[in-house]
């Protein structure tokens, strides 16, 4: 997979260091955080990369309009403003910089907990209105000895726990993937949500907004909590059901809320933000100069590393590309794609299971990129002519294969079964089997349908692969059929096994006449453009 990242659009307020690093590395940058949706749609076709924070909504139509787009970078954590499924479908990498703003988001969470417990926001408002007398109404409560329930014990949840423990809070929590022993190490007693709700004085949520967490804190949950429970959301609007929260604030079931995020931003309705028991901030969790500098530098460096083929870091939808960037791996990716294309061209349908065997110690780490490469090559042969022009690559092939119930079973053998350092075999299960290797960076075929090629056959450019009855005149008959064409090589499988397989490589696509001539001397043939 090549990465010609020559131009990047930054459509949100990202620290200038990002621009500097990209430009220093020869990447052209336009930073414009004031583009309307229409302007973005007009601008995006000119760029290989896009960098956003949370404001730009990278919707399916924006992604589809990005005809050159190869990568979308999020200078921050949450990617819910990016249609990741559409990006994956179109083979576009999505990457983020999740660690860069953790401390800032954790600190704002702690700030909101303190503000809610001591009515700092109401006190400040009273002072600005010169209403000193309101101090009587603004009685708070200590955090010391209270219980904080943390839902989501990832990067931010953990940092919040560590900080609030210093106030003497008891920290309990829930996370479906963080084991209880791990959370115990940072002082959080793990328990089920049902156990947690009745125990907590404060709840803070630190999960992504996904179907399982949408409206996680709702009317039923408020009813299970102690009267006056206080809630904090510095994660994503919608994890706390906004309407249920308003009802709970009104009834007193909820004693106060600290909100940094909202279901729509800016909120369509400011009722919650304006509520006297709510301290609200306009999505400021990551808005510190430190966090912004970190995420800007990280995303720029991740882009540059990818453009230079050095490494892929922070991608959330490109597993198959890990280990696939080195010069050597790229040759194997190409071989995998070509074997897949060969399989699709001459092997017909699969049983739904493609077996890929990577032979040789050097291919030990190649499993995921080889499977994706074979799938990309195979699926290209099944694409409808005149389809939506999606180019198959290591990002979208695994997803597309999943949609078509196509699976790859990959196995690794330490020692190569052929006199090469490594080789790859693709087996469609009955209909097709081929083995190839790489030679000076190119792809070559070592065996097809059980027949070996004594001299490896080149898989490149315009190629015709055929099977023909074996006879002494086969080579001259095939040569005669394509006489006058610019043939770069003609390779036959070994004699003696019944029909033989042959591969003819052309410098330019052969004429219809030559194709017809060839059809007259072979049993079956496929013309493939590698
Ligand atoms: N307000 C702001 O400016 C910022 C907001 N965020 C948001 O904060 C949230 C957390 O970020 P990180 O801690 O960096 O993410 P993380 O990925 O490190 O942690 C999220 C945790 O949530 C857990 N989780 C998933 N489903 C869950 C469920 N149903 N119940 C309980 N836990 C569940 C995951 O297992 C994971 O451990 C994200 O939504 C992120 O977008 C992050 C940075 C700044
Ligand atoms: O990183 C995140 O998930 C955030 O919510 C921060 O958003 P922002 O980059 O400040 O628009």
From TrEMBL:
InterPro entries: ASB_dom_sf (IPR029009), D-isomer_2_OHA_DH_cat_dom (IPR006139), D-isomer_DH_CS (IPR029753), D-isomer_DH_CS1 (IPR029752), D-isomer_DH_NAD-bd (IPR006140), NAD(P)-bd_dom_sf (IPR036291), PGDH (IPR006236), PGDH_ASB_dom (IPR045626)
Listed PANTHER family: D-3-PHOSPHOGLYCERATE DEHYDROGENASE, FORMATE DEHYDROGENASE 1
The species this protein was found in: Magallana gigas (Pacific oyster)
Name of the molecule in the record: D-3-phosphoglycerate dehydrogenase
Record family assignment: Belongs to the D-isomer specific 2-hydroxyacid dehydrogenase family.
Keywords recorded for this protein, A-Z: Acetylation, Amino-acid biosynthesis, NAD, Oxidoreductase, Phosphoprotein, Serine biosynthesis
Ranges for domain D-isomer specific 2-hydroxyacid dehydrogenase catalytic: 8-316
Any one Gene Ontology molecular-function term assigned to this protein's record: NAD binding
Any one GO BP annotation for this protein: L-serine biosynthetic process
SUPFAM superfamilies: Formate/glycerate dehydrogenase catalytic domain-like, NAD(P)-binding Rossmann-fold domains, Serine metabolism enzymes domain
Annotated coiled-coil segments of the chain: none
